[in-house]
Amino acid sequence: MSITISVDMMSGDGGAPVAIPAVLQVLKNNADVRLLLVGDESSLRPKLEKSGSQYADRWTIEHAEEVVSMDDSPVQVLRRKKRSSMRIAINLIKEGRADACVSAGNTGALMATAHYVLKTIPGIERPAIVSAFPTVKVGQKTLLLDLGATVDNSPEQLFQFAVMGSTLAQVIHNIESPKVGLMNVGKEAIKGNEVVKQVHELLVDSELNYFGYIEGNDIFTGSVDVIVMDGFAGNVALKSIEGIVKFLMSTVKSVLCSSPWLKVLAVPAYPLLRRIKQKVDPDRYNGAMLLGLNGVVVKSHGGANSVAFSYAIQEAISAASQGVVTLIRDRVAMLLQED
Amino acid sequence: MSITISVDMMSGDGGAPVAIPAVLQVLKNNADVRLLLVGDESSLRPKLEKSGSQYADRWTIEHAEEVVSMDDSPVQVLRRKKRSSMRIAINLIKEGRADACVSAGNTGALMATAHYVLKTIPGIERPAIVSAFPTVKVGQKTLLLDLGATVDNSPEQLFQFAVMGSTLAQVIHNIESPKVGLMNVGKEAIKGNEVVKQVHELLVDSELNYFGYIEGNDIFTGSVDVIVMDGFAGNVALKSIEGIVKFLMSTVKSVLCSSPWLKVLAVPAYPLLRRIKQKVDPDRYNGAMLLGLNGVVVKSHGGANSVAFSYAIQEAISAASQGVVTLIRDRVAMLLQED
Known about the structure:
The structure is a homodimer. By secondary structure, the first copy, chain A, is α/β, with parallel strands linked by helices. Chain A has a domain at 1-124 and 288-307: Isopropylmalate Dehydrogenase. Helices cover 47% and strands 17% of the residues of chain A. Chain A is built from twelve helices and eleven strands. An eleven-stranded mixed β-sheet of chain A has the order 3-2-1-4-11-10-5-6-9-7-8, with helices on both faces. In chain A, strand 7, helix 7 (194-204) and strand 8 form a beta-alpha-beta unit. The radius of gyration of chain A is 21 Å and the shape is globular. The two termini of chain A are 36 Å apart. At the A-B interface, helix 8, helix 9 and helix 10 of A face helix 8, helix 9 and helix 10 of B.
């Protein structure tokens, strides 16, 4: 079965110069994948014809005259940017021409547009943003949701996130019965806010493989496969993690630059640093999925480079080829709508 | 003015073997500080008389026969461990014999005991846990609260946290008019949950130097001096940060151990690693303060080593000698009780 992915080539900090090498890499690595490249035709075509002629039967340009900027508000985008590369890329799923879509555009606009165009799966009230995090256990990743699609979630909505996260872990991480953890401020039953306590009850009574309460540090311990939390706490956690990583990197840089002597001493350690970078490679963890919609939409980091952007497209291919949306629809129908 | 600090010598993972070297270091560094050392006299006295005889006029043992374990629930501790080192150390503040108290015991029990014994300052409904984080700006730290003292906070309670955090930043970080940020999932006015939007209004109308909404990564950018958030999100952020740091350290270790060759290559880089460690030294950031009570209570990390524990005591000394509680009481009276 051939998979078709629509790619928003214009949004994100890097725009087309970042997106073009990424799509060429994806076309090279996936002989059975077709790409619909959405963006300004006059700027895309010359470069693609020059470097991508050998894949010319597997890419098509879909012209879009507008671009959603990183500052555009979701409301403005919905009302006034109906001809943007982001909107058209999502429309292509709705029209049945694409199996999934990738964009590096601003999260709020992407979320609002995808929600408006594709609608949620029956039984799912709100979409969630999900992403995989590395753990200390080799080969194991943890899926975290919601990372900020919505806030003020009800217990029922958080339970729906658990069902979706568990299904995704089954499909993309090949885990038969994924362990689901509920984010809390302590492991004891008396801890937590009112919403969390109610979700706990729903999970205890469910058919999911519920592990119980977990805490922030468990994101990286591999004790569970899926972590469910409110979009507010999820977004704060995600950005705090990004913040400390940037802080540590800037500290290393400032120490290195503080003396040429330290710089020289560090040279023999470069192979070591390369290995460490490979292990925690943030590029590989690019690509958050909007879950719960009638279609696969993958959000790339706005500041992604070409390698990272290609990983996001790869994630969309993998989700689409495994039929994630259909599987979630079936699971939700089974677990949530029987009563 | 001489300051007296009561120290819970028994709680925490390390117990007395960690606490004794820490108090000796503090006595050495602070010639005007007196310590009330709370714990099992028979195990403390021999070691203290052996190594601490030169400071014998500045330390006293206060015998306590019980210890709060890391698993004791707050309710159990309040009801059944009235003769624990933690409880007695806090009682000493209430009795006017100590200016501040330090414990490495479990957070829930410490919070509950301190709240019960000391009560909140008039105008403050709930206490908060506050801690300082390093930023990319040299010498600047950010105070974060609440890190998990309570959850389900009302807008008014979060505003009270802002008043307390701002006062603390003035006193211990010497900032005349600290910039206060409100944690949110985006910087735009339409973002956020209902509670956050209401706190925003309270802050806009206040006399505090309100910066506006900030996001998780701003903890480390130094764009504000104080960050206010609900104890649920605060605790998740704190533990997620601890989790990624541990994950990165374990990755570095596993790469080093993967080949003797890499280990050899890394040797010349050790001075570099030492410098980096100095810069981000987690020991220095040990010591979270329970804010809003009629007394200074500092919580050391349960797994703190002696150096880290001594930093927590130093923090208590600094807060007590600057009269943090009185200053917060005055500021709260001025800002919160005028109407």
